[in-house]
């Protein structure tokens, strides 16, 4: 059935166009039959145009347009409502059906993704189901992500490989498995999940800090970058044969960057020494300028501790550490992590509720580092 041209011209007038747009919206959302009424805030001219194809008394009635009377008015001119809507805007969509199909496809994809992940890490128990789903949760396609994760896990363990080398071999991108990528995060979490399933231990999110990230990869024979992770130190009295020992001894009074690589080997803090820990390099640089080689040992995390910072600080054992950071949310997060993981950690001029930034307390901190005072 073709729609007469004059009817199409009428349908494109402002009033009929608004009416038919609303009818189309409702039809595509499941409106069927002759029930229902469309009521919009039409102007007098719009009501006049709409009324040309309805009963004569509708224009002055003030009510909306009933589906039954719209169909009846169009049939009198040889057109059906759906035919007119199709002629104006193309085929009608079944949005309910589309949503149902999309939901079914999504559930199928998720089931396939979980099956692939289970094949890669082993059969997890109910207590780890939330973890498994969380690994794939951010991905548009669970099956696609799980397939890539399975490929990565299958390529680990045979012989030691560097992380960037593995990424380049599998995905032609040396950064594909970086911590900043969804795939890298999914893979390292899957490795930890596989360890928990295999050993029957508890799961700990390897994204909590850089040390856990590296340990999870290392457990699968994958070597992470050991030179980009650094920690800044001043007058750190280390002993042993690790490269970090020679670096610290070579530059008394000067800030020194230690890499994770330089901390490989045997090292420990000189007997009786205590360490101060700050967040910002301004404090360490100022201590070097004012005190030089006379400054107390100082470690700067430079924000959230890197893997190198954790390797150094946790390697101190129960050595007394005076720790502080800025008094903001991130700073307190750093301090709480340090107190949780370092048995010898005590806050340094940072009482509970402190909101001061380190630069605001610089003179007091420098006085402590000289040895004249030691604030709470």
UniProtKB/TrEMBL annotation:
InterPro entries: CHP02679_N, DUF2399. Pfam families: DUF2399, DUF3323. Residues 258-351 form the DUF2399 domain. Residues 35-237 form the Conserved hypothetical protein CHP02679 N terminus domain. This is Protein of uncharacterized function C-terminus (DUF2399). It comes from Arachnia propionica.
